[in-house]
Q: What sequence folds into this?
């Protein structure tokens, strides 16, 4: 079993703190591989709030006396005083992130994000954003850098916003489809400078190319290749503004071996040649 957790001011105390609107008190991650069953049972609940995210595998939660099998991509929210009972099995290879929080405005904040006391389970998808945010919270609690408590609150509200977005979008579009498109955009963001074949990517995810392109465009309003092109041009603009790399070096860094072809694409995208764009932006920087 792997665990990584951190506590505010190194305190393990379950508490109510109304000194600020939102206070993160602890956060952690479990990966269950060896322990046959990992059980948590709190008949009286806790005094604070708890949010759990099943990143992979599955978990068993007992809510209001009924068992729910929660699959990856779901969140479970407990309010203060609610009985808690849940367990993970090593055979499911569960990875779960959890966070506890308190504060004077938590109830109104949750209500504003659509997380009401009547609902406990939210399907939010398997976006890499969630584990990344939880890991950032854990690290901030461990390092205690300046202003970290305020940053913890912002990270948690970011999670609330993403949950709210997921719930709203699921009402409009199938969650499985949206999760696949989000997975694709994450892949494109990480590999935009490489040669990407949309046909091969769709095949790797067991989709037809037409199905993938159609759903990608339906959700993001651009085709996959238009999305990749925009990533390349955006990064080219950044390099032109903030580095002294040559046009050839910039073209290569974003995935084009031919600087002339890159220049034609850049001109079509921005209305300026790369050199003219660099000159204009730097003149604006020094003479706004």
A:
């Amino acid at each position: 079993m792997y665990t990584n957790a951190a506590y505010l001011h190194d305190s393990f105390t379950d508490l109510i703190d109304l000194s600020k609107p939102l206070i993160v008190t602890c956060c952690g991650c479990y990966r269950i591989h060896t322990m046959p069953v990992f059980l948590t049972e709190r008949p009286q609940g806790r005094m604070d709030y708890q949010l759990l995210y099943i990143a992979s595998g599955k978990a068993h939660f007992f809510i209001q006396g009924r068992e729910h099998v929660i699959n990856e991509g779901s969140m479970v929210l407990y309010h203060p005083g609610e009985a808690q009972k849940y367990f993970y099995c090593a055979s499911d290879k569960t990875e779960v992130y959890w966070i506890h929080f308190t504060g004077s405005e938590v109830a109104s904040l949750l209500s504003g994000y659509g997380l009401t006391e009547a609902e406990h389970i939210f399907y939010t998808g398997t976006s890499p954003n969630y584990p990344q945010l939880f890991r950032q919270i854990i690290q901030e609690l461990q390092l205690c850098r300046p202003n970290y408590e305020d940053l913890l609150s912002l990270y948690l509200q970011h999670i609330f916003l993403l949950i709210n977005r997921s719930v709203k979008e699921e009402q409009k579009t199938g969650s499985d489809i949206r999760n696949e498109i989000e997975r694709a955009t994450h892949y494109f963001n990480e590999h935009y400078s490489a040669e990407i074949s949309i046909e091969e990517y769709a095949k790797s995810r067991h989709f037809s190319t037409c199905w993938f392109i159609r759903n990608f465009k339906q959700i993001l309003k651009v085709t996959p290749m238009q999305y990749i092109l925009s990533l390349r041009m955006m990064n080219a603009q950044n390099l032109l503004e903030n580095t002294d790399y040559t046009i050839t070096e910039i073209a290569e860094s974003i995935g084009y071996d031919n600087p002339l072809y890159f220049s034609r694409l850049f001109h079509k995208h921005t209305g300026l040649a790369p050199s003219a764009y660099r000159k204009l932006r730097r003149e604006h920087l020094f003479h706004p």
